[in-house]
Amino acid sequence: MALNLFGANCLTLAQAARIANLTIYDFLDLLKETDIPVVDYSPTELDEELKVG
After folding, report:
1. Which of 17, 18, 20 is nearest to 38 (CA)?
2. Which pTM value belongs to this model?
3. Using CA atoms, how far apart are residues 27 and 38, in angstroms rounded to an integer?
4. 3-state secondary structure the chain
5. How far apart are CA 29 and CA 31, in angstroms?
6. Tens of pLDDT, residues 12-42
7. Buried-exposed string 17-46: b where 16+ CB fall within 10 A, e elsewhere
8. Cβ 38 vs Cβ 28: under 8 Å
9. In this structure, are residues 24 and 14 in contact, taking their beta carbons and an 8 Å threshold?
10. Phi, psi at 43, each rounded to 5°
């Protein structure tokens, strides 16, 4: 359930990890096994973020 809600952008990473009863790091490892991206930026948004950062 946490994976689906995170993938639908209904939960933050921390919220999804908490619901899954996992650490954020363990939830990230779980995401690696799926097709759910950890970040979902468009190319334009990514360029903007990289300029600011």
Report:
1. 17
2. 0.76
3. 10
4. CHHHHHHCCCCCHHHHHHHCCCCHHHHHHHHHCCCCCCCCCCHHHHHHHHHHC
5. 5
6. 999 999 999 999 999 999 999 998 989 888 8
7. beebeeeeeebeebbeeeeeeeeeeeeeee
8. yes
9. yes
10. -55, -40
